Description:
about 500 residues; seven-stranded mixed sheet; six-stranded mixed sheet; 16 helices; 23 strands
Amino acid sequence: MRRYIGAIDQGTTSTRFMVFDKDARVVARAQKEHQQIFPAPGWVEHNAEEILRCTHEVITSALQQRGLQPTDLAAIGITNQRETTVVWERNTGRPVANAIVWQDTRVADEVARYAKSGGQDRFRVQTGLPLSTYFSGLKLRWILQNVPGAREKAAAGEWLFGNIDTFLAWNLTGGPRGGAHVTDVTNASRTQLMNLKTLDWDEEMLAAFEIPRAMLPEVRSSSEEYGVARLPVISGVPVAGILGDQQAALVGQACFHTGEVKNTYGTGCFMLMNTGDRMVTSTCGLLTTVAYKFGKKGACYALEGSVAITGALVQWLRDNLGIIATSSEVETLARTVEDNGDVYFVPAFSGLYAPYWKEGARGVIAGLTRYATKGHLARAVLEATAFQTREIVEAMEKDAQISLASLRVDGGMVVNELLMQFQADILNREVVRPVIQETTALGAAYAAGLAVDFFPGLEQLRANWAMDRKWEPRMEEGRRERLYRQWNKAVERSFDWMDA
């Protein structure tokens, strides 16, 4: 009896496999980190083969915890770090280079070159996205230009492209022996190669970026059977759901109604608002993207505000400076002081994403005096996440003409009580955390489960959602606005650090 649904959650720093029952309760889980590779300033890479090995290991580990067999799983869904770009050989499955991660800024010169003709928004009508180092298309172009023989082999279909979802789906369903070369509309919408209206690759974009169509995956819905797994531990289980990680969190939070919003606090911070079947063109620096598409039903769209560095800043404090030994210690250290000591940390390590889209910005610590301690620095690190979220909320309310009464939150950082209270304070809105906080993996499980009738419909998924904790704002208005004003001054100091 197929009692459970599985979900691969392949993130920027680690890979998880989770097993859920019909009530969305976690039955088993396993997680493993992978290496972060920094070959040059602004460059960020992953070893895609290492990610694949980690995926195999966490699937095996999670199933062994409960003695589960392939016949216990109705299907498996995949959710993934978006925009991270992989090219591999069709015949062997070997990547031709390290994966170029979404945070990588090596194509900044190309962004500037394309923007000279038509501006930063020249492709926004087709793709919903500004020109940026963020998206996959220019990363793929870089590989084709810099790996010997790449363009010829890609044009011949000998080399394949995909974001991490595609790489995993292809390998799980057979790899060189007939693996399904597919992606879903949410991941395709992050390449800057897909047309938001047709939900297929845009010929004008392919020509502009010089991308051979022969190397691209087939664009499919987010919830359907793409193939069956060939990996022995899950042999015969349908791979039936794919969602980019932030869209998966939107689904996992059951934000199926127009105007509903979630914010995920992970390596970066990503806020999405469901806009239904309406593509809202942003005038405030947000992205128009696909929220999800279930089977043959029409696509739902979203407005998104993307922040590159939030949880990654805590990791930087741990790994690069050694101020804390574990990420969880940042809250304890931040609580040793009563406020930020007038210290502000703008983590523009990969430039600034929404709402600024400043490729030349770099990280800034502002307001330092001899009074400042490592406690103030830790507090500034946490507050940076909340300040950036407020910027996105203000932009989203202007674009959508909807005022947010509350914010649903998820992701690894929402266990940080100090951060959540400050978030409510600086937003002057309630912040709500759900009982099931693994919303990214849960969204992938929901997509797969809908495809194989494991879940009967969206209303049951909405019924699964329940509140765990709520934070109400309690900061005095004058202090709130002074802090935010100082933050905005610090942000301005980060602009144009890198010469054009």
